[in-house]
Amino acid sequence: MIKILVIIAFIVIIGSLGSALFYLINNKGQQPSQKLVRALTVRITLSVLLFIFIFMAIALGWLKPQGIGSRIHKVQMPESRSAN
Questions:
Q1: What is the rounded distance in angstroms from the CA atom of residue 21 to the CA atom of residue 17?
Q2: Which of the residues 30, 50, 57, 69 could staple to 65 if both were Cys, CB 3.0 to 4.6 A apart?
Q3: For residue range 28-84, what is the model confidence (pLDDT) as tens digits?
Q4: What burial class does residue 20 get, using C-beta atoms within 10 Å of its C-beta: 0-12 exposed, 13-18 middle, 19+ buried?
């Protein structure tokens, strides 16, 4: 379920980026339109929210990292020794 939400978020982010490109091309060198600014703002907001969601999902154990990130969970801190 989590992976489906992440995929949908990526599709929406790419769609927002595509609409921003469309508004940029049709602008013809004028000042940036409100639609262009809004599309880029939506993309940035969704990207930040997706990053936070993925970080929290990994921290809560909903997602298991694979590859390089999987080694982080396997490394355990050495036990602290008292200086006697």
A1: 6
A2: 69
A3: 767 778 888 898 899 999 999 999 999 998 888 888 877 765 666 555 555 655 555
A4: buried
Count of structural domains within the chain: 1
Q: Using CA atoms, how far apart are residues 30 and 62, in angstroms rounded to an integer?
A: 46
CB 43 within 8 A of CB 11: no
What is the DSSP code (8-state) at residue 31? S
Tell me what pLDDT residue 66 has.
79
Q: Count how many residues are written for the chain.
A: 84
Cα–Cα distances in angstroms (integers) from residue 65 to residues 3, 26, 55, 60, 76, in the given order: 12, 41, 10, 12, 16
- Is the residue at 34 inside a domain? yes
Angle value at C-alpha 72, between 7 and 63, nearest 5 degrees: 30
Is residue 79 a part of any domain in this protein?
no
